[in-house]
Amino acid sequence: MKKKLAAIVLTTAMIMGSIAGCSSKKAEPEAPQTAGETPAEEETEEAAGTEADAGTDSGEKLVVGFSNWSRSFEFYVSIEEGLQKIADEKGIELITQDPDGDLTKQTQQLENFITRKVDGIIIVPIDSEASGDEVKMVNEAGIPIITLDIAALGGGETLSHIESNNYMGGEKSAEYIAEQIGGKGKVAVIDNPTITSLIARTDGFKDTMEEKYPDIEIVSIQSGDSQREKGMEVAENILQKNPDLDAFYCTNDMMGLGALQAVQAKGLDTIIIGFGAEKEALTEIKNDTNYKASFSQEPVSMGETGMSIMAQILNGEEVEDFIAVDVGLITIDNVDEYLK
Asked: For 307-333, how does the pLDDT look when each residue is reduced to its tens digit (9 = 90+)?
């Protein structure tokens, strides 16, 4: 079912084109269904569907389970919106679950999906390596599985992975910081080395700094565990040793907002670049604080693409192993476009 790995940078127009033509087999329309909450889960399960254009040969509605990363991030809420939109269009029942960053909870959710005999499963893995056991479990149940935003590396077979072009985001971040600090100075990175997408952002940043900006020193790379509080703690430690730091590059906005607190508490001019286009981060950018830029990952488009790919799989079509969605730099010059 899988084609040779191919990284495809999609614009929004290309994504919508793919969405429009992704399903080749239709079933008779069915009335919308509403899914109730299972006893084993406290999260809300959402059922979707208006007219069925994806289904089994008997006309039964297809059911897809989605285990997110955490709804505490606006980004992941937006991914759900994109998934739901295409599920509605195709008459697919979508069951969404929120493990809230807990690997054990996500595993339990997948076990519940398997028990319910869903037709397909989509996940944002909590941990890239540890999620291998989850994927193997789904493989053994004979259910197709794809990943969004974060890849599963610990084993098993996913049929497709859709994510932002994170490496490119790292490259653009390095270029932007270099421009802001005049091509020389000290920078630090706050990342999360357990998540593939964030690793790629760090790699793109480091590689670009090494290749293009020899007068900029990366004085520290530390994990903020994708959390605001940890990001602040790490930033405080780095600033204690490097009070003359010119910039922080944070591989998501939650860690960036934590770093902002640390910088403002010390009254420093250190600038901060984040990732994810969280509303609070965009407000800081608009207010011309130390938070100078973030990146939009187009999460709604990512969700739309993910559900379209799953529909293709369930219709027996071939899909690409890897799809990369472009990212956009957000600064004070264009932030109003993203705050609408």
From this structure: 999 999 999 999 999 999 888 999 999
Q: Kindly list the distances between the CA atom of residue 97 and the CA atoms of 77, 142, 214, in Å, as whole numbers in the listed order.
A: 11, 21, 46
Every domain of the chain with CATH number 3.40.50.2300 lies at 9-159+299-325, 166-297
Say if CB 134 and CB 165 are below 8 A apart: no
For the segment 262-278, what is each residue's pLDDT rounded down to a tens digit? 999 999 999 999 999 99
The length of the chain in residues reads: 340
What are the start-end ranges of the H helices in 181-278?
196-212, 228-241, 253-266
Distance from C-alpha of 8 to C-alpha of 323, rounded to nearest angstrom: 5
Rounded average pLDDT per 10-residue block, the chain, 340 residues:
37 36 36 36 38 51 97 92 98 97 97 98 94 96 97 94 94 98 98 92 98 98 97 98 98 97 98 95 98 92 96 97 92 93
Q: Which CATH class is domain 9-159+299-325?
A: alpha beta
Q: Is the pTM of this model over 0.70?
A: no
DSSP reduced 3-state for 278: coil
Say if CB 317 and CB 95 are below 8 A apart. no
Closest by CA to 5, choosing from 176, 223, 134, 161, is 161
CATH of region 166-297, choose from 2.40.10.10, 3.40.50.10900, 3.40.50.2300, 3.20.20.80: 3.40.50.2300
